[in-house]
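Morning - LPXRUNBV inputs below, output right after.
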Amino acid sequence: MEFEIPKKVQKIDEDIQREKLKYHNKRVAVTKEFTFDAAHHLHCYEGKCKNLHGHTYRLVLTISGFVDPVGISMDFGDIKKIYKEAIESRLDHRYLNDVLPPMNTTAENMIVWIWEEFDQKLDDYQWKEKGFLLEEIVLYETPTSYATMKREWMDHDESL
Ligand SMILES: Nc1nc2c(c(=O)[nH]1)N=C([C@H](O)[C@H](O)COP(=O)(O)OP(=O)(O)OP(=O)(O)O)CN2
Ligand SMILES: [Zn+2]
C-alpha cells in the first residue's frame, strides 16, 4: 500500500521549496567540536609542564561557506572527515614531541600547525575554490586553558 503524503505536509513542502530560494546563497559559519588525547612536555619551561604529561585536547573548528539549496554550507560529516585525516590520525594517542615537526608543543604552536594542516585540506579537496574559509579555531589544552586563532585577525595583521 502506498503512503499518501497528507495535504498539509504537501503544502509545507511547497513552502520549503519557495523559502529555500530565499535563504540559499548566504555565507554562514558552522562549528564542530572534537577531542583527542595526547602526551607532551614543554621545552625551555620551568614548571610542572616540563615533565611528560597528558591532556584531553578539545578542538573547536569553525568554517564559513555559502548555504546550498538544501540549506547546508559545509556538512558536519565533511568537517569530521577532514579532521580525522588531517589531525586525529596524526595526534590522537601520540607523543606530540615525537610526531609534530620540531616545535615547542605549546597550545599556541599547536594551533598554528592545526590551522595550516586543516586549511591545506580545504584547498586539496576544492572547498576553497567553492568559497569555504576556515574562520576560527579554539584549542583547549585543559578545561580552563586554551588558544584561539581567527581569520579576521590574520587579514588585519596582513594589512599592517
Ligand atoms: N601560554 C601557555 N602557557 C602554558 C602552556 C601553553 O601551551 N601555553 N602549557 C602549559 C602546560 O602544558 C599545562 O599542561 C597546562 O597549563 P595549566 O593551565 O597551567 O594547567 P593546570 O591544569 O595546572 O591549570 P589549572 O589552573 O589547574 O586549571 C603551561 N602553560
Ligand atoms: Zn601540557
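Note: The beta strands are 27-40, 53-66, 94-95, 133-142, 145-150.

O.
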